[in-house]
Specification:
The protein is mainly alpha-helical. It is 59% helix and 8% strand. The chain has two domains: 150 residues, no CATH class; 88 residues, no CATH class. A hairpin with a 5-residue loop joins strand 1 and strand 2.
């Protein structure tokens, strides 16, 4: 699975999985389903209002409103929904910039403008489907032009899957500053440890260790390597969190 690196607000690097073609298609189908429901409801209420007023004007107004929503739905959702339409939110994927940052309004606008190429030329959606299937980051033409990509928003490591080490009575945290972290930070640390266990890539351990040291402004004692440092940080965090819950 293709990944893209994103730097968190704590200056911690994490790799996110690129959304697959199937997820993009399902998100699109959900959005189309929503548009169909909106159209049906608009016709029902517009027709009822027209019958009550004795005029077909309300039907035309309903059609006009629907066409407006249909045309600007993706753009409005992505700009105000942090890169997610309703379909993308259901599928837990979102639009971001290729550099890992949140996409700009200009990038959202470019993606939207190139919907004409992706979804209107030849068969509806054919260009987008072929382009996404052939590019290594599953990008449609609008993504390539705008410099955007769709990634999965669900973390690969859940807090429920983290094995919390039991605390001995009287345990004293080595790094009390670990209490400044939050659950998401600990998820990232645990994910890096898991990555090392699977691949043996010590570079990710070193980088995460350096980020945590800088963020917490701590220095491990002599003889504590980067892996032991990260494991100790998790242990200290668990202990501090457990003590806070007991208060």
């Amino acid at each position: 699975m293709q990944t893209i690196r994103i730097t968190t607000s704590q200056n911690i690097d994490i790799d996110y999985e690129v959304a697959g073609l199937g997820e993009r298609i399902l998100a699109r189908l959900i959005d189309m389903g929503i548009m169909i429901v909106v159209f049906i409801l608009g016709m029902i209420f517009g027709g009822m209002a027209g019958m009550y007023a004795g005029s077909e004007t309300m039907v035309y107004i309903a059609i006009g409103v629907y066409l407006f929503i249909l045309a600007f739905y993706d753009l409005i959702c992505e700009v105000f929904g942090n890169g997610q339409s309703l379909g993308k939110k259901v599928m837990k994927i979102k639009v971001i910039s290729l550099n890992g940052a949140q996409a700009t309004i200009g990038q959202y606008l470019l993606r939207w403008l190139f919907r004409i190429v992706d979804f209107a030329l030849i068969e509806p959606g054919f260009v987008a489907l072929v382009c996404a299937a052939l590019t290594d980051k599953t990008q449609r033409v609008g993504d390539i032009v705008a410099g955007t990509i769709l990634v999965r928003t669900v973390p690969r490591t859940k807090m429920d899957n983290i094995v919390f080490m039991p605390m001995y009575e009287g345990y004293q945290p080595v790094f009390p500053a670990a209490g400044q972290l939050d659950d998401r930070d600990v998820e990232l640390i645990h994910e890096v440890i898991n990555n090392y266990m699977k691949t043996g890539n010590s570079v990710v351990v070193y980088r995460m260790s350096q980020r945590i040291k800088e963020h917490l402004n701590v220095e491990p004692p002599n003889g504590m390597n980067d892996m032991l440092f990260l494991q100790t940080i998790i242990k200290d965090y668990n202990h501090i969190s457990a003590q806070a819950d007991m208060l």
